[in-house]
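Record 1 of the preview.
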Amino acid sequence: MPAPRVFSGIQPTADSFHLGNYLGAVRQWVALQETHDAFYCVVDLHAITMPQDPAGLRQRTRVAAAQLFAAGLDPDRCTVFVQSHVPEHTELTWVLGCLTGFGELSRMTQFKDKAARGSATQASLGLFSYPVLQAADILLYQTEQVPVGEDQRQHLELSRDLANRFNHRYGPTFTVPAAYILSGVAKITDLQDPTAKMSKSSSSPQGIARAVTDPDSEVRADEEHKPGVTNLLRIYSALAGEPVGALEARYAGTGYGAFKKDLGEVVTGALAPIRERTAKLLADEAALDRMLAHGAARARPIARETMTQVSRRVGFLPGDRAG
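->
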């Protein structure tokens, strides 16, 4: 029986992944390549829904890919590629967009949040239709399971709705994807604001040392009264493989100084090998680009097959998809 297919993507919008990316997604992706037919994408098309410097985007796309490989993704055991290298992503987005209601997209919380940071009247069509492109990413590969966090559930539901809507109107075409709930994944929040998602500046010993705690010096998990310390304990537990309770017992009565110092060393020990492998990969851009071309070459035939079915069912004249 073939392994279930899983798809996930990550944006190249920072100079480096942070601990939240690693612990919440990438580390699980590495495990999933052992049990699933895994497709992982650096979503540069999604990235340009917000202003990007072209040279910076190219560099960050390579950095994101290098970090994925350095973290343990094996190009021979999973498919790692850049979204813009498979043009069917945008082609399917148009078709699905013609089945998506304006009201559906207006209710998407991520659009409302991002638009609220600037002027809603200046928000682009790309930002508004971001969830449709995300649905195309997933449906293009007949994905069976999608690793999701709470902030992505709404977008996955749209993907499911669009798959069912297309299948009902045109006949069975798309696999309806299910959520793959990652077990044992720590919810990692920002070190300076534990009520927010982690920022890119948080994955360093310096970031750990400056992390917000509270006036009480007890190292104890308490989501309501000690969210900062609770977040640090989750990070420590995830990286060291020790239960939070054992850490609480170890640091009882010691205060935050020793705890933060030790956590900084744990973070450095966990991430230093990944950073070293990333640097080696980035030192040979031609080889890195070949690895990504290898992934795109594996992804394209599946994408073309899906779009051939979609085009036929929608009523488009047949064309040459051999390129």
